[in-house]
Amino acid sequence: MEHKAIELIDKLINCWSLWESQEDFYLNVLAPSIVHSDRSAKLMDNEKEIVTALRRLLSEEEWSKLPILIAQRRNQVLKELASDRERAEVQREAKRKEEEEQARRKEREERKQREIELELERQEWQRRKAEEERQKAEEARITRKKALSARIKDAFKTSFLSADGVLTADPDAELISDEEYAELKAQFVRDWASRELQQPLDSEQAAAVAAIAGDIHVVARAGSGKTRTLVTRAIFLQKHCKVSPRELLLLAFNRKAAEEMRGRLSKTLGQDLPHVMTFHALAYALVHPEEDLLYDDAHSDQFGLSREVQEVIDEHLRSKEYGNRIRDLMLAHFREDWERIVNGRFHLTMDEFLAYRRALPRQSLRGEYVKSFGERVIANALFEHGVDYRYERNFRWNGVNYRPDFTITTNPKGGVIVEYFGLIGDADYDEMSEAKRKFWAGLDDWTFLEFSPKDLAERGTDAFVQLLLQKLHKVGIFWRRRSDEEIWELIRGRALDSFTGAMRTFVGRCRKRNLSPDALALMIARHKVCSKAEGIFLDVGVSIYRKYLNCLAARNKEDFDGLMWRSVSLVRKGQTRFARDGGKEQGDLARLKFVMIDEFQDFSEMFFELVEAIRSLKPGVQFFCVGDDWQAINGFAGSELRFFNDFSGYFRNTTQHYISSNYRSPISVVKLGNALMYGRGREAKPARNDSGWIRLCKLDEFNPSATEQERHNGDEITPALLRSIRSFLDRGLDVVMLSRRNGLPWYVNYDENSSAIQNALVSFVEHIRSYLPEEDRDRVTGSTTHRFKGLEQLAVIILDAVQRSYPLIHPDWVFLRVFGDSIDRIEDEERRLFYVAATRAKDSLALVTETITESPYLADIRRQVPLESLSWSELPPVPSLDGTRLEIRVFGAYNVRDQLKDLKYQYERTGKYKYWYRAVPAEGFSFDALLSQRWAKHVVRIDIYSETGDLLHRHIGSCDH
């Protein structure tokens, strides 16, 4: 029988639950009735389902024996149940014991849980009690802290300078952290300045003013209110802290800064001013020299120091011993092969060498700053052989500004072009070189000569020059070799200016180190020179320096540096009293409590020695030094940034503060400055919400109008700048043009009156002004970047954001190597100079550059912030002042092109349209007369435009092209 059938029988047995009393009925009545399908058997539904399923599983024989099968299965189950009952009894006993154990465990757990709950209740009670006690303690602490703050504020009101001691001595001093205390001081100063001076200070400025313990170092970014902070501190000390003005000394490095501080102080303090002066004025007030004082001051047109040095130089020039040596020195300096010097004797790392070679503006004998040694060889050869040339003269080529290296004009229409292709092997450069060859090949009036570094390397300099001269001779350029005497006479003025400038700097550096001639000679003897020119310069320099000092003594004269060292000596010997202005202002270094130094980034050993001398007499004097390491640009004059960077190593009990918010410039200018100086210190923060205006003004993208081309004849910087300047002026912005050096890297077509001083910055500014209306001319100024430091203007134009201007590694720097000057140091200072130039802008900044030669600093800026290029088409040409002109454009004139050439029309190949064009005076112009000319009948269209680009007339021709 199947197992399933047994399961069904067991289910049926289980359905009948009264076996103890009804067993006979189940087996003898109910079961047989099921077998015989007797309807009298009253079955439940589930029983019917079991019976039905069972009938399908059992055979006929098995079905007939169903009562027996039920009885047999019943007996078997009873046996199993008996066994089950025994097992169940055991299990029940085990379960009873388990239940008893569980009950005991439960009782223990409940008892333990209750103990835990009681403990938690106790802990919660203790926590609440502790919290209540903590709150009471905190309330008490707050009350004590408020009381302490009130006591501190009272101390600030009554004895600000000793408030630190009040806090230290207070039993509750630990309740206020150093940061909180500093904030209290700063807030007190802010409130005081706002109330007493009606002058708001930001939190950083106030914190710097409030710092009175030890020596204070303040890093003040451009436009952050450096002078305001310093002046406010002096006023606060005098008016609130009751420090006597005789106990305060404010020092600056130039007269203008000192006068500005004095002017601001007088507005609040009246005549009761602290001591405010330059370092040199202090030295003078201490020494009271009987000698005549020598100094240079461009603002007051005083150049006594330069004249004295020049006299010594002139004496050397006239001498048999040094005259020819100085001449040889300068000629060698302009002819030196720097690559050979660097590779041979001047040992630099390769990275430094490459950076140096890229940045070095090689200067030719005639004075141009050329791009390579090869170009300088060509320039010098042309000059030495009397060949007149223009370097990088502008030509229009397919609508772009193309400047071939050398242009030699032989007639009004043409001449010879000399190109030095220095990057042969570069695919893009080679492609451009080939395009240049084709361009000149298509111009009948011009002859094209080209050279490469290979020509120079294979032949050597002398043979290369001969090759150049032979090619020039073949194309009709005649030359004659000038003697060295002739060359010297031609370059003498400029060469001596260069030599004098370098020697004046050299003498100044010696004086700032307080070197004796013998000490200088010893230092030079230990120095390894890198060129013939440097060796001669240093040798001559010792003689000039010695003679200069002798002349000072013999003529009863003194310079500022000597005066400074004499003042240091006097103070060290115990002299403390000083007097100025005929005795009207008198002071005593021994009385000083606070010394405040402006423009601290310009500090040097000489000034530090004076500071140390003052401290030796008054150990408790406190120094407050404000400056910006990002604006340290006077290293060439002897300033040393080490005092700024390692302030704590030179001063005592120091703290540092930052004034970072730029109030001068818009957001875009601040971001540009931060990008330029990225990774070199804490960034400036824009304090203004306006974004400002910055554009790259790429000259290679400038396309002058016909009138501009005619008026400026190859000069593209002038019309481009005029467009930018006009747009600034029309927006109500005054403009300053800043240049790295006293000249420009662009060709300028000056009028005859300016030709003698071509490329001088003063001349260029006047040149630009001459194209503006009289009433606008004073609104446009120009300056070198160095001279404009500390100043500002609404619109700033950086004239030379190109290589060899930023950075400018001037050739004369080698003469200062003996003082430790290096390329890296100079390059860092050049970056800071570019930062100074950019951060003069109060509203708008224009960066004049070109794609191929742009300054590497622009790439550094782009890594952090985007730079947008100016669309020149948005700026109209500036109208003429001497008569309006018109531009004629002729379209579809192929058949009459020769006639148009004869009439001096030029062909415009760029842009969407090609046309012939020329400029003509507006006065007397007749459009009808133009159309009556014979060539006009054979063209497609003629347009007449104003100087500002407005279409005035249009004629559509009838000729079918």
Q: Please, how many helices?
A: 35
Sheet with most strands: strand arrangement? 3-2-18-19-1-20
Count every beta strand, where a strand is a DSSP E run of 2 or more residues.
32
Mean pLDDT: 87
CA-based gyration radius: 48 Å
How many structural units, i.e. domains?
6
Strand content: 5-15%
Helix content: 40-55%
Give the class from helix and strand content and strand pairing.
Answer: alpha/beta
CATH superfamily of the largest domain: P-loop containing nucleotide triphosphate hydrolases
CATH class of the largest domain: Alpha Beta
| Poorly predicted segments | 338-359, 753-758
Anisotropy-based shape: extended
Notable traits:
32 strands, Rossmann fold, alpha/beta, 35 helices, five-stranded parallel beta sheet, 961 residues
Any overview of this molecule?
The chain has six domains: 3-142, no CATH class; 178-291 and 558-659, P-loop containing nucleotide triphosphate hydrolases (Rossmann fold); 300-331 and 496-557, no CATH class; 334-488, VSR Endonuclease (Endonuclease, Chain A); 670-874, 3-Layer(aba) Sandwich (Rossmann fold); 885-956. 51% of the residues lie in helices and 15% in strands. It contains 35 helices and 32 strands. The strands form ten sheets. It has a six-stranded parallel beta sheet with strand order 3-2-18-19-1-20. A five-stranded parallel beta sheet has the order 23-27-26-24-25. It has a five-stranded antiparallel beta sheet with strand order 29-30-28-31-32. The N and C termini lie far apart (114 Å). 36% of the residues are buried. Mean pLDDT is 87; it is low at 338-359 and 753-758.
